[in-house]
Amino acid sequence: MTNVEVFRESDLSVDEVLAVEADHILIATGATWRAEGFGRNQLQSLKTLKPASQIFTPDDIMAGNLPKGPTVIFDDDSFYMGGVIAEKIQYENAPVTMVTPENIVSAWCKYTSEQYQVQKNLLKLGIHIRTAHRVLAYNGQMVTICCVHTGRQQSIEADALVMGTARSPQDELYQTLKRHTKNGRSNTVPFVAENR
What we know:
Blueprint: H1 14-19, E1 24-28, E2 31-33, E3 55-56, H2 58-62, E4 71-75, H3 81-91, E5 96-99, H4 115-124, E6 128-130, E7 133-138, E8 142-147, E9 153-157, E10 160-164, E11 167-169, H5 172-182, E12 189-193
Parallel strand pairs: 1-12, 3-10, 4-5, 4-10, 5-6
Antiparallel strand pairs: 2-11, 7-8, 8-9
């Protein structure tokens, strides 16, 4: 389409976007993983996760910032990311325990016919799996988890905790453009496509 311009991997300012004088703007925000526990099964941030230097997100792992020593991965995303992170850390010779509130690992992958293979591969690699549990606390040495059905608690020794929970949109540009539109400073109408 000749009337559409795409700016990939471009950090544009509000002034640069408005200078294009487009009638409509679609913004793909992108997102970063949260580290404080907020997610599908924990609707508030956990105040019991310390120290921050030993808590990682999938963004950290994929950037090459890998934990050393025994690691617990809390997979509240339940798609493919938890398994990918578990494999990557296990391949670095750090023992991994994967914790998920679901009754199977990577539960959403059953819709893509991958769940069986994901769980089978994790088990073959020697990754420990705790299903139907969620994280309650971490003190830098022990991760406290509890059964989602009974509330029964147990602790797992860990030098690191990886939180695969929710993501936060990077939507500052969209929000600023939206304020411009509301204040009558622009006729441009921004739309957002949030990647969470």
